[in-house]
């Protein structure tokens, strides 16, 4: 712990990507703001992530374009000319982030503890957060709050969401249909982390049977669009396909109005958490205790424990925290029956009025 006696004048956060991790980091940043309301906060993040963070209250957003190569670092250094921060929270272990930290002038640079400071992050910092026992990614970010001498509290999010985007989502979802909304966000960043088309198609049918209007959301990549089209073709449910048709703010607005989200380990799952929408998370490759939907672990469907023990010969409790399982067909182990059971549990906990369908 630094033993900070007074709030610093300014503070810089370095977390470039990805969407889910940025959502976790928002909770830590807003926890700091709650206790240091007059500290000026600057956040260096990636181009896509900036679209989500734009408008974050009392936070200056600086975009680092990793695709620009050396020019990205040069632009960041130019932007930082004449600035000096009391504290830099170096919240990303990737080497490119550490190189970016060289462009950010700060007398105190805080990184992860020695065990987690991979890719040589420890070289670029002069303070570390305390070691943690099997933390969720979000808890790891809260460690930066703790090292500042602040209180770590339950995460609360105040995500910036323009009124026009909320109105667009409301008109899109409820103009002709007032049923509760279930969002399926089927695509993770890597195809192997996606569940299969049949599973999603049957899930859509079940959600409709329960009483939900079913919406599919996702980004504009060819893989995501094709997956959504295949699900819509195979399913007998009536599905509204918004894949590739929303901005990040519009997607956040849709998730905020939704009543349940079904998703693998992907950004929209964690975006849903920030706006209080229950998530049924689908996991096989990563430990959901570390990367799952933070407030909704109860509703996770996972085969990670079994898979990792088969692959490593030991239970996950005896392995390095965060080790990933490998394989292109692991998600096929998840069954529609398991997913239905978790949907039922969400309905029982949040929307018991829908139980009449049974």
Characteristic terms for this protein:
6-stranded parallel β-sheet; 358 residues; globular; 13 helices; Rossmann fold; alpha/beta
Query: Separation of termini?
Result: 54 Å
Work out the helix count. 13
What is the succession of H and E elements?
EHEHEHEHEEHHEHEHEHEHEHEHH
CATH domain class name of the largest domain: Alpha Beta
Concise overview:
With 358 residues, the protein is of the alpha/beta class. It is built from 13 helices and 12 strands.
Describe the secondary-structure layout.
Blueprint: E1 10-14, H1 19-35, E2 40-45, H2 47-53, E3 59-63, H3 70-79, E4 85-90, H4 95-101, E5 106-111, E6 127-128, H5 137-147, H6 163-174, E7 181-184, H7 197-210, E8 213-216, H8 222-234, E9 239-241, H9 248-257, E10 260-264, H10 267-274, E11 279-283, H11 288-291, E12 301-302, H12 304-312, H13 336-350
Describe the protein in words.
By secondary structure, the protein is of the alpha/beta class. It has two domains: 10-147, Glycogen Phosphorylase B (Rossmann fold, 3-Layer(aba) Sandwich); 163-357, Glycogen Phosphorylase B (Rossmann fold, 3-Layer(aba) Sandwich), CATH 3.40.50. It has helices spanning 19-35, 47-53, 70-79, 95-101, 137-147, 163-174, 197-210, 222-234, 248-257, 267-274, 288-291, 304-312, 336-350, and strands at 10-14, 40-45, 59-63, 85-90, 106-111, 127-128, 181-184, 213-216, 239-241, 260-264, 279-283, 301-302. The strands form two sheets. It has a six-stranded parallel sheet with strand order 3-2-1-4-5-6. It has a six-stranded parallel sheet with strand order 9-8-7-10-11-12, sandwiched between helices. The chain is globular. It starts with 9 loop residues before the first strand and ends in an 8-residue tail after the last helix.
């Amino acid at each position: 712990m630094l033993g900070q006696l007074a709030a610093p004048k300014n503070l810089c956060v370095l977390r470039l990507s990805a969407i889910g991790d940025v959502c976790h980091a928002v909770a830590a940043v807003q926890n700091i703001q709650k206790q240091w309301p007059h500290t000026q906060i600057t956040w260096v993040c990636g181009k896509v992530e900036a679209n989500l963070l734009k408008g974050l209250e009392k936070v200056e957003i600086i975009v680092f374009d990793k695709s620009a190569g050396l020019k990205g670092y040069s632009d960041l250094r130019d932007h930082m000319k004449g600035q000096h921060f009391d504290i830099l929270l170096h919240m990303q272990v990737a080497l490119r982030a550490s190189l970016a930290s060289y462009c950010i002038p700060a007398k105190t640079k805080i990184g992860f503890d020695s065990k987690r400071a991979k890719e040589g992050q420890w070289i670029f910092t002069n303070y570390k957060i305390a070691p943690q026992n099997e933390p969720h990614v979000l808890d790891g970010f809260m460690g930066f709050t703790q090292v500042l001498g602040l209180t770590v509290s339950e995460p609360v999010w105040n995500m910036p969401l323009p009124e026009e985007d909320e109105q667009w989502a409301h008109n899109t979802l409820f103009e002709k249909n007032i049923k509760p909304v279930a969002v399926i966000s089927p695509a993770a960043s890597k195809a192997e982390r996606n569940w299969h088309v049949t599973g999603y198609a049957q899930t859509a049918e079940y959600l409709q049977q329960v009483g939900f209007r079913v919406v599919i959301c996702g980004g504009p990549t060819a893989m995501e669009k094709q997956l959504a089209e295949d699900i819509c073709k195979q399913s007998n449910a009536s599905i509204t396909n918004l894949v590739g048709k929303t901005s990040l703010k519009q997607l956040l607005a849709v998730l905020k109005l939704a009543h349940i989200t079904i998703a693998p380990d992907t950004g929209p799952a964690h975006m849903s958490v920030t706006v209080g929408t229950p998530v049924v998370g689908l996991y096989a490759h990563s430990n959901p205790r570390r990367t799952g939907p933070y407030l909704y672990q109860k509703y996770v469907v996972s085969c990670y424990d079994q898979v990792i023990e088969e692959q490593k010969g030991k239970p996950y409790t005896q392995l390095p925290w965060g080790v990933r399982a490998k394989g292109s067909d692991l998600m096929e182990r998840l069954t529609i029956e398991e997913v239905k059971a978790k949907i039922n549990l969400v309905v029982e906990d949040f929307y018991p009025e829908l139980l009449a369908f049974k």
